[in-house]
Amino acid sequence: MTTHAPHASHTVTLPASLDEAVAALTAMPAAVPVAGGTDLMAAVNAGLLRPAALVGLGRISEMRGWQYLDGHALLGAGLTLARMGRPDFAALIPGLAAAARAAGPPQVRNAGTLGGNIVTSAPTGDTLPVLAALEATVIIAGPGGSRREIPVSHLLAGREMLGPGELVGFVRVPLLHAPQTFLKATGRTGPGRATASVSLVLDPARRGVRCAVGAVAAMPLRPLEAEQWVASLIDWDGERGLVPEALTAFGDYVAAACIPDPAPPEDGSEPATLPPAALHLRRTVAALARRALGRALS
After folding, report:
1. pLDDT of 204-229, one tens digit each?
2. Could you tell me which InterPro entries the record lists for this protein (predicted)?
3. Which of the residues 81, 102, 119, 229 has an alpha carbon 20 to 30 A from that of 96?
4. Mean pLDDT value across the chain
5. Global pTM?
6. CA–CA separation, 208 vs 210, rounded Å?
7. Which helix (H) or strand (E) holds 196?
């Protein structure tokens, strides 16, 4: 999505199916796919993007719903944040619904889509830490009817990229039927961009805790050692509660993993300390992680 063509005539194509959209993008390599357009139009209005052509995805019904498949939910990439925030979806994937409801004002939630969040990969994207904690995968549609599936974390980290003519068509999410929480901190009262966010998921079948921290780095961070440590403390066959000291220790563990201390100087001089803003962010992450785990276990 870095097409610059200031003198090109604008073409808008409105395909009716996912494969038609792929064919249109293959035929027009300079075209940009658009669903909700919340990030795209902001870039256009700021003069950062001049797309030569647009392929609108709003008429592709198969991308705007979801279905059950082998213990998973197959979510269309065109699902809007507003739709994911409704009670029926919240009963299915509560963590993702909570993130969708927190994503911003109504006009953003009504237009913004799940696939748009993934492809744009903005660090403050609220659904991204939830998808990382759920270990979701994306199904990518390509030319000739091809489909390939990769972990969403690979796409967010840039380990695998979309090729020419490819689109994120669906997101596969495991249905855990277990507590899920999402919390975020913003710089102001009311809806706003996250300064930090935490998604926490319990996985009783594997006796695991999965946590992802958003907005503090270019992609969601998984504090794997903290996950393993706290999972070993939980009585999975009992009430699953933890004492307040354990919750606090988990929050500190997560925060230190995501916002580590500076490396000690090689010359043996006085070690550097985190600047005040980073210390504040670390305290924020610790508080969010502590509260998220406490709510999941309550």
Report:
1. 999 999 999 999 999 999 999 999 99
2. Diverse_Substr_Oxidored, FAD-bd_PCMH, FAD-bd_PCMH-like_sf, FAD-bd_PCMH_sub1, FAD-bd_PCMH_sub2, Mopterin_DH_FAD-bd
3. 229
4. 91
5. 0.90
6. 7
7. strand 194-203
Q: How far is residue 154 from each of residues 131, 143, 158, 159, 237, measured CA to CA in Å?
A: 12, 21, 6, 5, 34
DSSP assignment of 142-166 equals: -GGG-EEEEEHHHHHTTSS---TT-
- Decide if 100 contacts 81 (C-beta within 8 A): yes
Q: How would you label 120-156 residue by residue, b for 16+ Cβ within 10 Å and e otherwise?
A: bbebbbbbbbbbbbbbbbbbbbbeeeeeeeebbbebb
Q: With residue 27 as reference, give the H or E element that holds it.
A: helix 18-27
Q: Which amino acid is at 207?
A: R
Q: Tokens 């220790």 label which residue?
A: 249
Phi, psi of 34 (to 5 degrees): -140, 135
Tokens of 229: 């440590």
pLDDT digits (tens, 9 = 90+) for 161-188: 999 999 999 999 999 989 999 999 998 7
Cross-strand pairs, 67:
74
Residues of the chain with pLDDT > 70, as a percent, come to 95
Strands 194-203 and 208-214: what pairing?
Answer: antiparallel
CA gyration radius, the chain: 20
Name, in order, each residue with C-beta under 8 angstroms of 55's C-beta and a sequence gap of 6 or more.
13, 15, 21, 24, 25, 28, 31, 32, 33, 34
Strand partners, 32: 54
**Tokens coding 4:** 């610059």
